């Protein structure tokens, strides 16, 4: 019988598994492949109205509302709105409801192939006014505050300009493009001479999320594709960082298709022809004039935003008739304006205070 | 004295990434901003859409041969459901308008009845006052005093 002395091998194995690099690789593999996805959108809510795929939520209905003006959040047709309620302690909605605000969110849902003919104006004219009506009825308020993020903010601005008779007290726009004269690389890539918009919409119906995501990642390919994994490997032992990384990756890869006709209108009327800022946009036969906006305006722009450039945001303040208007510039990126440490510590409290001050 | 430094693959990877990113960033951004890049992107897009269009047509004809509904036909059913839902929405809106009109009318009716009630109360009050006024002479003319003596003797008589 041959007896092997495995002590040396065991020692080596023990040292191997205790090696910092090996521990990091092990954890990195777990995070990427087998860790459970974090639960998002945890603030309690109830659905108070639905239409087609859209849902109107009211948040924390059980909490006493000390602020008399309800807030309706209007999200973009790209990605999912839970970025506004990402995780407990990292949620704009949670922050506002905890401070006694009555918060509602209009979630457009996931468009199906049958929604490919939905135009932007259908959402603006058929959905938003009804949602506003439902909010007013539920809250029994006399005024309303509207908050739009990204493209949702552009839609909110168009809506506010179209319905000056509605009691819209406050308008908050977060990184919402209004002037498309210089949209960075997008202006080049979406050039009418090369970008085949009609062929794209006619062939695909709805525009897949992957195509939109490809465009966004192409803005800064190395840091958008490799960067997140380098950061994760570097800080994989920091559980808070890993949680935030997983939350962001979940949201970034959890997109929705863009309804085809809305995409056609969004690219043509906004990116290619820049109609909104020039008062040339026509919605259901009605001209959209930004000067009709009289509500108090808080326009938030992020300096490191490469999806919506600061110069696309600021010109709105010169167009509106609002007496109370603020352009708030923050040192963040497009997404970190709503989520992350800076958003939680600075931007959420700023928005809450502005709303409280303008809701008396 | 020798100093031992452990090999850290992650730090090396991070350094390589940072150096590569900073070296290539400007060149990549320059390329992305060129008109020729947009043109190439357009060409790739055109080829992809041509391929996708062909796949769509082939799939549709294949499904037709198998007697199966296409994506278009299935989505048409969904559209019908959405249209019905829109009509229900319109009805709900109209009902809301009617409801508010009806409640406004009921409110006005309530006010009208209240006013009428108050007026009726006044009328009744005035009528009872006028009856009282009409009855005063009768009351004063009631010959209570003369009847007393007639009763009195009767009592006395009993005694």
UniProtKB/TrEMBL annotation, chain A:
<keyword id="KW-0012">Acyltransferase</keyword>
<keyword id="KW-1133">Transmembrane helix</keyword>
<keyword id="KW-0583">PHB biosynthesis</keyword>
<keyword id="KW-0808">Transferase</keyword>
<feature type="domain" description="AB hydrolase-1">
    <location>
        <begin position="70"/>
        <end position="338"/>
    </location>
</feature>
<dbReference type="GO" id="GO:0042619">
    <property type="term" value="P:poly-hydroxybutyrate biosynthetic process"/>
</dbReference>
<comment type="pathway">
    <text>Biopolymer metabolism; poly-(R)-3-hydroxybutanoate biosynthesis.</text>
</comment>
<dbReference type="GO" id="GO:0016746">
    <property type="term" value="F:acyltransferase activity"/>
</dbReference>
<comment type="similarity">
    <text>Belongs to the PHA/PHB synthase family. Type III PhaC subfamily.</text>
</comment>
<dbReference type="InterPro" id="IPR010125">
    <property type="entry name" value="PHA_synth_III_C"/>
</dbReference>
<dbReference type="InterPro" id="IPR029058">
    <property type="entry name" value="AB_hydrolase_fold"/>
</dbReference>
<dbReference type="InterPro" id="IPR000073">
    <property type="entry name" value="AB_hydrolase_1"/>
</dbReference>
<keyword id="KW-0472">Membrane</keyword>
<protein>
    <recommendedName>
        <fullName>Poly(3-hydroxyalkanoate) polymerase subunit PhaC</fullName>
    </recommendedName>
</protein>
<dbReference type="Pfam" id="PF00561">
    <property type="entry name" value="Abhydrolase_1"/>
</dbReference>
<keyword id="KW-0812">Transmembrane</keyword>
<keyword id="KW-0963">Cytoplasm</keyword>
<dbReference type="GO" id="GO:0005737">
    <property type="term" value="C:cytoplasm"/>
</dbReference>
<feature type="transmembrane region" description="Helical">
    <location>
        <begin position="146"/>
        <end position="166"/>
    </location>
</feature>
<dbReference type="InterPro" id="IPR051321">
    <property type="entry name" value="PHA/PHB_synthase"/>
</dbReference>
Automatic annotation (TrEMBL), chain B:
<feature type="coiled-coil region">
    <location>
        <begin position="81"/>
        <end position="126"/>
    </location>
</feature>
<keyword id="KW-0175">Coiled coil</keyword>
<protein>
    <submittedName>
        <fullName>Polyhydroxyalkanoate biosynthesis repressor PhaR</fullName>
    </submittedName>
</protein>
